[in-house]
Structure formats: structure tokens, C-alpha cells
Design brief:
By secondary structure, the chain is of the alpha/beta class. It has two domains: 199 residues, Isopropylmalate Dehydrogenase (3-Layer(aba) Sandwich), CATH 3.40.718.10; 156 residues, Isopropylmalate Dehydrogenase (3-Layer(aba) Sandwich). It contains twelve helices and twelve strands. Helix 1 links the parallel strand 1 and strand 2. Helix 1 packs parallel to helix 12, helix 6 crosses helix 7 and helix 8 runs parallel beside helix 9. It binds 3-isopropylmalic acid and manganese (II) ion. The site of manganese (II) ion has 2 residues, from helix 9.
Length: 366
């Protein structure tokens, strides 16, 4: 069956990292005989520049008609002064809502070979393997009322959660924990917020269905601190939208680099797969962006949207291989270590895959 992917490069470094992700996707699928149909569409600032809305109707239609969405990044300072609806981010938030994926999975793994890149002592991070399950369709991002008064003297947002919002994402976290080390840490601010008290009580209720999983609750401030002092103590972190946004950047940085992490948004009709990093317009177009986050997202896409585990594993193995062999993009280079460009990293990963598949053929021929 053909796998149809809507590719949304977006802004800043989005297009250059996505070019490498599609190169690797095409390559692994042609090596394994999987048919692939990619179509490219505008979102965010890239759409606004063409006089479109940040989420053009034809882009949304194409996403709905696909098996998965592969997204680069959105956001550009050129639109900072615009109203919320005319900012690039509105495109991404609109797309998430329209496609309905409520569970955003953000794995933060400290590759052995990258432990030295972490700002923390290597012995504290080596072996850290965290999965953040971020609720993606409620909380402050979508709650109403929201707004600002005309004289810009006050502004307001609403953090709102229903029990149903919490139940569905909690189930995802417990299910994921079952495939890992069977521990969930649910993060909230139940000492202050009503939404967090609802969150905590609901997670406890859902937990009753998963007696094989260990659950603990942690306040967001404690969790932020613990991530920096003992990242290895976490397995699955389950949390609401804004807390998850913040903790995932922190988890990414402490495990080595924000540039190497991918994410999967599941639970809706069509999944969205995007790197955790942002659009980084300051470094766009210079070949210094790390494409591994986008390539790792492509692997997650193959696994979750295509049920192509072998191909996904092949990409993830190739990523580890090039890192072990010492290939570094600029963000990963320590001191005066030499580094390669965005495209060279994509090429190195592609070669590693081809080599390993060749080796397997040689083995079968014996
Ligand atoms: C992310 C990003 C987005 C978010 C922005 C670009 C709207 O930071 O995916 O983490 O806050 O969700
Ligand atoms: Mn973020």
C-alpha cells in the first residue's frame, strides 16, 4: 500500500531539515520496496508570505487526505507584531486542532555518544531515556475566554481541562509505559490550580485500570528541577499542554541537544510528526541546522502511521551509527571539533542505511 505523506516544511530551518528527512524516507522506502507519495504544502510564515492564511484551506485538505503529516517548524520574527490569528504559530495550532491528535509523544534519549554534549555531567545523563506525553489540544493554548483589552493594559487566557481531555491522554501514557519501564510520573500544579486537581484525581482513576504501572505525581517546579539533577529517574512523564511544552525543551537540552529529538502527535485521524526544535530563523539557510530531529520524526512516522517498524528501526539505527562514528553538526560539536553541514548529515545517515542493508544482502547470499 502506498504511504501518502503531506510534507509541510514551514519556516526558518524547517525546509532544510525536512529536505534531509524526505531524502532518508525516500531512500529507506526504495530499499525496502515500500511505495511513498510525498506532496509539499505551505504552512505558517511560508503561507503568510504568499498572502494566504497561516493554515491555507488547500494545505489542510491535503493533510486530511494523507496518511501522515511531516512538519518542519513554524514561526518567524517578521510576524511578531501581527494579531494571534495572523501569526505563523496559528497555522500549527489550527492544524493540531483540525487533525485531532491529542497526545504528543516526545522521547528524550541520551545517546551514549552524545552524553558529552549535555551541559550536565555525563555520568548524570548517560542512559537517560524519557518519554514525555504532552496533552496537546486543551489547557492555555486553546481555552476561552482569551484576549487583551484595547488599551493593552491587561490580557487573559484560560486554562481549562475536562475530565475527558485527561482520561484520553492518560491512557496513552499508561499504554506507552507498558512498552517501557512501567512507570508514569504525572506532572501538575495541584497545590495551586483547580485544573491540576482535576488532572490528578482523573489520572488516579485511570491508573486503576493499569495496576501493573507504577504512578507518582510531581509538581511542575519539582519536575523541572529533577530533570536537571536526575534525568535518569524518569520513565514516562505525563503532563498538560504548556507544562509539556516547557519540560520537553528542558529534557531535550539536558539529554544532549534539542536538535536530535523527534515527536509524534497521535490520537486523531491523521498523525503529525515534527522535530521538537523550533524554526531557528537566526541560523536558517546556512547549513548548520541539525536534521536528526526531523529524520527521527520521519522514523516515528513510519512506525506509527505506516506500521513500518523495520524501516523505522533502520533509520534509528543509522542515526546512532553516525553519531557513534563521530559525525557532528555544529550544535553537537564540542570546542574545536570539526562538524558537517545539514545536508552532509542527511547523506551520512542515508549511506549508513544503505550499507547496513547491503550487509544483510551479503549475509543472505552466503
Ligand atoms: C512546540 C512549539 C509550539 C508549541 C509553538 C511553535 C506553537 O514550541 O511544538 O513545542 O508551543 O506547541
Ligand atoms: Mn515548544
Amino acid at each position: 500500500m502506498t504511504l501518502r505523506i503531506a510534507v509541510l516544511p514551514g519556516d526558518g530551518i524547517g525546509p532544510e531539515v525536512i529536505a534531509q528527512a524526505t531524502r532518508v524516507l525516500r531512500s529507506v522506502c526504495s530499499l525496502s520496496g515500500q511505495e511513498l507519495r510525498l506532496s509539499e504544502h505551505a504552512i505558517g510564515g511560508a503561507a503568510l508570505r504568499h498572502g494566504d492564511s497561516p493554515l491555507p484551506a488547500k494545505t489542510l485538505r491535503a493533510c486530511r487526505d494523507s496518511d501522515a503529516v511531516l512538519l518542519g517548524a513554524v514561526g518567524h520574527p517578521a510576524f511578531d507584531a501581527e494579531s494571534p490569528a495572523q501569526r505563523p504559530e496559528a497555522g500549527l495550532l489550527g492544524l493540531r486542532l483540525a487533525l485531532g491528535g491529542f497526545a504528543n509523544l516526545r522521547p528524550a534519549i541520551c545517546h551514549d555518544s552524545l552524553a558529552a554534549c549535555s551541559p550536565l555531567k555525563s555520568e548524570r545523563v548517560r542512559g537517560a531515556d524519557i518519554l514525555i506525553v504532552r496533552e496537546l489540544l486543551a489547557g492555555l493554548y486553546y481555552g476561552t475566554p482569551r484576549g487583551a483589552d484595547a488599551r493593552e493594559q491587561s490580557a487573559w487566557n484560560t486554562m481549562r481541562y475536562t475530565k475527558a481531555d485527561v482520561v484520553r491522554v492518560a491512557r496513552v501514557a499508561f499504554e506507552q509505559a507498558r512498552m517501557r519501564r512501567a512507570r508514569v510520573t504525572s506532572v501538575d500544579k495541584a497545590n495551586v490550580l483547580e485544573t491540576s486537581r482535576l488532572w490528578r484525581a482523573t489520572v488516579d482513576e485511570v491508573h486503576a485500570l493499569y495496576p501493573d504501572i507504577a504512578l507518582d505525581h510531581m509538581f511542575i517546579d519539582t519536575c523541572a528541577m529533577r530533570l536537571a539533577t536526575d534525568p535518569r529517574s524518569f520513565d514516562v512523564i505525563l503532563t498538560e499542554n504548556l507544562f509539556g511544552d516547557i519540560l520537553s525543551d528542558e529534557a531535550a537540552a539536558v539529554t544532549g541537544s534539542l536538535g536530535v529529538l523527534g515527536s509524534a502527535t497521535l490520537g486523531g485521524g491523521v498523525g503529525i510528526f515534527e522535530p521538537v526544535h523550533g524554526s531557528a530563523p537566526d541560523i536558517a539557510g546556512r547549513g548548520v541546522a541539525n536534521p536528526i530531529g526531523a529524520i527521527a520524526s520521519a522514523a516515528l512516522l513510519l512506525r506509527h502511521a505506516g506500521r513500518l517498524d523495520t524501516e523505522a528501526n533502520e533509520i534509528e539505527r543509522a542515526i546512532e551509527d553516525v553519531l557513534e562514528r563521530g559525525y557532528r553538526t555544529r550544535d553537537l560539536a564540542i570546542a574545536d571539533e570539526s562538524w558537517i553541514t545539514t545536508a552532509e548529515m542527511g547523506e551520512a545517515i542515508e549511506h549508513s542505511m544503505a550499507e547496513s542493508i547491503d550487509r544483510r544482502w551479503a549475509y543472505h547470499a552466503v
